[in-house]
Amino acid sequence: MKDGTGVRWTLEEANAALTEVSQPMGMVVENSSLLRDLRVPATGRFEGRVWLLTAGSQAREELADRAAERIETAQSALRALGVTMKDCALGLVDFESIREGRRVELCWMLGEENISYWHEADAGFSCRQPL
User: Fold this and answer.
1) What is the dihedral of CA 64, 67, 69, 73, to 10 degrees?
2) Which residues pair with 96 in a beta bridge?
3) Model-level pTM?
4) How many other CB atoms are found less than 10 A from the CB of residue 101?
5) 95-109, pLDDT tens digit by residue?
6) Using one digit for the tens of pLDDT, what is the confidence trace for 35-61?
7) Is 60 helix (H, G, I), strand (E, B) or coil?
8) Distance of CA 61 to CAs 28, 58, 71, 99, Å?
């Protein structure tokens, strides 16, 4: 069951889901880039809501708010699909899976044609290995 909790994907299922995953992930990357371009400082970890710390035009603040809302919407869509967004800038997504009897993550980055990498569940992008 792909409901965002305890989801386990086969490689075939994950590759078939890429068409559904790529659209919201593209929206996250695009709007995250917009927020970076606006150079909007944020406090703490980005949680989908940006608090502007510097004075700026009302239009700039509204643009940043709309970008943050689009990111939140896309993040919700990804969670509903049962995938884990790992990096907003790279468009990195993990699909929980089982490999040789242990929990691993199938690792995909926006722009890649198929899922070709995996890493241990407690590791990250730098530890990804070819399938």
Assistant:
1) -170
2) 105
3) 0.77
4) 5
5) 999 999 999 999 999
6) 887 764 544 344 444 444 444 567 777
7) helix
8) 18, 5, 15, 45
